[in-house]
Amino acid sequence: MTHAHLLPRVPIQHRRRQPADMVREAEEFAERMAQRRSVRDFAPDPVPEKVIEAAIRAASTAPSGANVQPWRFVVLTDPARKRRLREAAEAEERAFYDHRASTEWLGAISGLGTDWQKPFLETAPAVIVVFEVHQGPHSPKPYYVKESVGIAVGVLITALHHAGLVTLTHTPSPMRFLNEVCERPREERPYVVMPVGYPAPDARVPDLARKPLDEVMIRW
Ligand SMILES: Cc1cc2nc3c(=O)[nH]c(=O)nc-3n(C[C@H](O)[C@H](O)[C@H](O)COP(=O)(O)O)c2cc1C
């Protein structure tokens, strides 16, 4: 493969704001992000397609190793396709909870009250399955794939929350069955499954605490 020529340079789009405005907006944003929760009980109501599209557009602006942008977002809204996804996921999850997961792992997630059943994969109006895109017939070799896709998913979660939707970061183990359900080639590797929608009216979430700033931040 030949190396690309040096890209032309364009001015950075940046507007400097007043420090006081920045502080206020940063604090408001942190408050808003603190409201984000992983939801496991969804209302069946449809979501605007344009919101999902814009959130994925936002996610695809994420930085990536060598700007390879090694991600694919597969949006499932077709009920038959979501049913297949749920059935395949539950078969894997049943084996995970029955014998694949270590006692230590089951202990770590016991407080969340999750089990092998994944009705949200069918109830949520949309499910976004995110894939890492590795080298293949139509894709170049990526660098720092996990980091890049993780950052893009972080932006996606933030964008969905900002737009007023809820989601869950769901990681079935193993995940290869997702290639078949989503009809994706081998070089695309499943990364995460994200049901998206509105919470069910009676949805409850675990009463979790977040670490305080002085525990997560060190300043010298
Ligand atoms: C990488 C990753 C994988 C996760 N996998 C699952 C999962 O498979 N099933 C699930 O119910 N929650 C899963 N979660 C959600 C976490 O349990 C949840 O983020 C955590 O308990 C904090 O709750 P919050 O998201 O409401 O702040 C996952 C989260 C992350 C970041």
TrEMBL record:
SUPFAM superfamilies: FMN-dependent nitroreductase-like. It holds the Pfam family Nitroreductase. InterPro entries: Nitroreductase (IPR029479), Nitroreductase-like (IPR000415), Nitroreductase/BluB (IPR050627). Keywords: Flavoprotein, FMN, Oxidoreductase. Residues 34-198 form the Nitroreductase domain. CDD domains: iodotyrosine_dehalogenase (cd02144). One of its GO terms (molecular function) is oxidoreductase activity. It comes from the Bacteria. This is Nitroreductase. It comes from Micromonospora maris. The lineage of its organism: Bacteria, Bacillati, Actinomycetota, Actinomycetes, Micromonosporales.
